[in-house]
Amino acid sequence: MCSTNERVDRIIASIANSIPIDTELSHYIINTIGLRLHCSPGINTDFVREIFEPWCYDQRIYNRSLYESPLNESWSVYLWTNSRLVNQHKHSVALLSGATTSVQRWRGDDQHLRLSGSSGALLVLHEKPFEGITVYLPDKKTIYSVFDNDPNISHCEHVLKYPSRTQSRLYDIWDCHASAVLHNDEAVIFVGNRRSGKTTCVIEMIARESYYYIANDLCAIDLTALEGIYLHAIPHMLRLTDDNISKWPDIAHRALKVDRDNEDYTKGFVFCGGKYEIYAPVARDFIGEIVGSIPYPVKFVIFPHGSLEPSAPVIRELSSDETTRRLAQQLCSDRPLPDWLAVESYDTHRPKRLLLELCAKRPLHGLDFQFHFSDSSAFDKLTSVLGYLDA
Fold it and tell me: Does residue 60 register a pLDDT over 50?
């Protein structure tokens, strides 16, 4: 009699063997550091490409041999639509229901079931808010995500993001909870935990002249260059509050017409968790130009503290030592990874050591920024301070 692990392995093998890997049948659309993506012909590859384009480095512009990942060191991700395959294996998984556990990765969703196979393999059955199956094969560095119908873009983001972030750490590029804008060809980053005001800062800054959108909520700090730290974009949806969208009357007008039942990110806003979620391809009319396709040197590190209580803005210049210490703390402690994806072990103190070494050679400019969420004038003061320090 087969063990549960053996039966899970058989289901995984059946799914893997059902996905064609011939490049003529799949669309090879993304090649990032350590990640290759293939999509089935039924998937809106143009939309997926636009979302993840800022993550695709043009080697003609950014030609550093460090980022030439050998094929056998890279992850491969397959996004596929096949309702027959999903329905077939939903029944197989149901027969193993005694071995399943809840996976709570997506907001308000406790209807994902996880089954473990051998060699660290995982099979995740998605039931709500979308139906599908994800197979994670760490020994082969491969992920298959098969959807019953149109793919859930938010899930695609997570599936692509995490293996690539894991791989990037091998190259000393460390993910960090931060948002970023570009000014004079240098990055201004806003670093902080949830609800600190990172998104508000980005939205306010790009509304001002000569500031351009790089990334929201999640970035990667590159600690490999001798001349200082660089910032990479990591694709992530914008999650906007009513206060955020009120700054653009035309966007606010569109948001009021949002179908609260819409779950298709290609059609516009998706209302979830009290916020309006939107991806860059359908937000360009107010985000403007997106400039995340190459890494940028970091000029300023700002630690925002947004408050709901009315108060005057307070901007405090930080020493390079304090800026470095606070950024290092964020890099070492902030690991927002999903509970269903096993992650290879890593030295959590390594980014701190590298950052201290770099900043000893090129000091960081840092600011502590306290502001009221509804006070746009606070950002006029912030841009004035940045202009003065940059002079």
Answer: no
The Cα 379–Cα 204 span in angstroms is 7
Domains delineated in the chain: 4-164 (no CATH), 172-237+279-390 (3.40.50)
**Beta-carbon contacts of residue 345 (< 8 Å; ≥ 6 apart):** none
Residue of 199, 192, 204 lying closest to 375 (CA atoms): 204
Cβ neighbours around 345 below 10 Å, total? 5
pLDDT of residue 67: 45
- Do residues 180 and 173 lie in contact, with contact meaning Cβ atoms separated by under 8 Å? no
- Placement of tokens 């098969």 in the chain: 146
pLDDT averaged over every residue in the chain: 78
User: Alpha-carbon dihedral of residues 275, 279, 281, 282, nearest 10 degrees?
Assistant: -20
DSSP H helices in the chain: 4-18, 45-52, 83-94, 153-168, 198-206, 242-245, 249-256, 284-287, 320-333, 350-361, 377-390
Would you give the DSSP letter of residue 97?
G
Binning pLDDT at 50, 70 and 90, where does residue 285 land? low
CA distance 378 to 95: 58
